[in-house]
Amino acid sequence: xxxxxxxxxxxxxxxxxxxxxxxxxxxxxxxxxxxxxxxxxxxxxxxxxxxxxxxxxxxxxxxxxxxxxxxxxxxxxxxxxxxxxxxxxxxxxxxxxxxxxxxxxxxxxxxxxxxxxxxxxxxxxxxxxxxxxxxxxxxxxxxxxxxxxxxxxxxxxxxxxxxxxxxxxxxxxxxxxxxxxxxxxxxxxxxxxxxxxxxxxxxxxxxxxxxxxxxxxxxxxxxxxxxxxxxxxxxxxxxxxxxxxxxxxxxxxxxxxxxxxxxxxxxxxxxxxxxxxxxxxxxxxxxxxxxxxxxxxxxxxxxxxxxxxxxxxxxxxxxxxxxxxxxxxxxxxxxxxxxxxxxxxxxxxxxxxxxxxxxxxxxxxxxxxxxxxxxxxxxxxxxxxxxxxxxxxxxxxxxxxxxxxxxxxxxxxxxxxxxxxxxxxxxxxxxxxxxxxxxxxxxxxxxxxxxxxxxxxxxxxxxxxxxxxxxxxxxxxxxxxxxxxxxxxxxxxxxxxxxxxxxxxxxxxxxxxxxxxxxxxxxxxxxxxxxxxxxxxxxxxxxxxxxxxxxxxxxxxxxxxxxxxxxxxxxxxxxxxxxxxxxxxxxxxxxxxxxxxxxx
Length: 600
What we know:
alpha/beta; Endonuclease III, domain 1; 2 domains; 9-stranded mixed β-sheet; 15 strands; about 40% helix; about 15% strand; DAO; D-amino-acid oxidase; peroxisome; FAD-dep_OxRdtase
């Protein structure tokens, strides 16, 4: 079944949500927005942001969870996609006790406290000794975070969505329900995801009077101060702030700022701009040459943006307006980027719930039809032919996860730490361009060496692992693979207490989050992650249905198509059968057996 989805809004929240939704090939995404990346308009908040990762969510809150869940994605993009405009940057946080009762101090209280929850998330966290703090600062910390060049990152997100088949169109709607009729296929959208930010205040069908702006003013300069910096407050008023950040890819240095609630003024206040620049030079004299003041700053431009605040906090929930299913994801205030993936995961989960309900309704109708077609005469391109082909794949080519190893017995396939780790080993081995026969032999050798036991793998030496890989004929990549397996063991022990099932718990059972976490495992690129989920869906049923992109293409070539929901329905929504089917299609692709279906 194809899911027609409209995402309304092309700020960081809308684009991140569209990006995650577009990773599911059964979703057909249309992004509709008045403003697109490249525009600079006071209504369009995302281009004006700093932006960075400096968590402010209170421990135990949904806000904290969104920020915690976002870090792995930003870290992965920074490491693997330098073209996205994000880079790692040293960060200094300064706290003054006399700021704690101010609006700004309360906003940044989690960021500036001596022992914050995020210390275990960001890189290289440590407290700053008191003798190294600037005058008037009571405590401070430093760590490595990320800084985002919004002028590069937002178009990168657009490109990723387009690569996944999403369509972008400019549009303005008076009522949210009207967006359902603007899907690029010409069909009515099944779901509209509302990511319109501050515009949700005036959008018909939403009219959220809890929305209000927090005006932020910045100065962009060419000077490079070194680390990013933020303080708990200023001496110039409760609604003014002090932060410095240098964007990646020549994006300049952002000097800020302000947090002026209910201020809609889009024109830069030059008196405020002078205070911002003076504060930044006072706290970071290295911004300018010795002896210089504001005149030493090489100004690119002044900017004003309106943060989309919401009384009561961000709105991420399901809704129905004039018969149209809606998922809201708006009201992120000043933390849109640093909570973008966490909020998008929550929104995508709600979209999936809606689509599952729609799918179940269709399945009830389909199950009646499926009972009838068992006695129909087969003809090309009919549903019963597809069902027949699915059964042929399953019965003639289907393979159990960990096929040809001692662990392949269906009775022994469970979610034990050993089985999950064995499936990771299988994926790491098969991701390399090596013959199917050699990968199977190597996997058997790894299992025989008991490397699916985390204690054995963790204690093994690099030389031990190299020998086992060589015995399996895994010669070309054995040294790198031996290193990767060592790093894998270390990560599982240190982060997941020796059991990768805990990774699924961290991901809340959500496949989108689990995929990103799996990519933190060294050697687990896109191909390896897809192979892993082909198999692990049999014991992690919340991740089903999965079929790697190469096998999905093969399924289409042999006349089954690419609708995962219909395939899964034909397999009675059995995750074990889905895993066998995935391995069967993979077998057809690897053995080039597509011709077995040509005359059907």
